[in-house]
């Protein structure tokens, strides 16, 4: 994707996030409507379904994703892809700092009737954000290695499916509102696009002291 396109799409994602954030902060009726629809979409509540989604959502936990990211960084480093290792690690960990900053700025309580034990604040969803960044990272690494078009499509579809499962599980388990996961999706996409649009500039800036 062209650099200018990344910037425009990234800015659009963050503008939409800003609009959502404004409505969340002011507790507007549209937020209540969206969240009500979200809880309706994940029904019915079944024990088997709850057990399965509880296990799956663990894989999207920021701690789990952080460990996987470190493992991926070490693997890339071993294969002498040092720039990729540093870059993708920065995207995940600096990005999640942004999520924490927003959580403790918005201070939105989590939904009632939670099916899992979870603390902290609700907006935006940390599980969703970290999962999206890790999935985008894996897609960026794997898709170029696919020699056939159907392989690329299959890998991308698997990535979309995994992100959808994590977003669905967070709402189903009443750990988040639908607007929490939508907000995290927009935040993560904007962060990924804007950061990657500046990757070359960033590494050129790092190399300046070395060249001198």
Keywords:
globular
Largest sheet, in brief, is: none
Large-scale geometry: globular
| Low-pLDDT runs | none
**Alpha-carbon distance between the termini?**
32 Å
Structural class: mainly alpha
Helix content estimate: over 70%
> Which sequence of SSEs, written as H and E, runs from N to C?
HHHHHHHHH
**Mean pLDDT metric:** 92
Number of strands: 0
How many helices? The count is 9
Radius of gyration, Cα only, in angstroms?
Answer: 18 Å
The proportion of strand residues reads: under 5%
Give a description of the structure.
With 212 residues, the chain is an all-alpha fold. The chain is 78% helix and 0% strand. It has 9 helices and no strands. It has helices at 3-25, 29-41, 47-59, 62-78, 82-106, 126-142, 149-172, 178-197, 199-211. Helix 4 packs antiparallel against helix 5 (82-106), helix 4 packs parallel to helix 6 (126-142) and helix 5 packs antiparallel against helix 6 (126-142). The longest helix has 25 residues, at 82-106.
Topology:
Elements: H1 3-25, H2 29-41, H3 47-59, H4 62-78, H5 82-106, H6 126-142, H7 149-172, H8 178-197, H9 199-211
Helix pairs in contact: 1-8, 3-7, 4-5, 4-6, 5-6, 6-7, 6-8
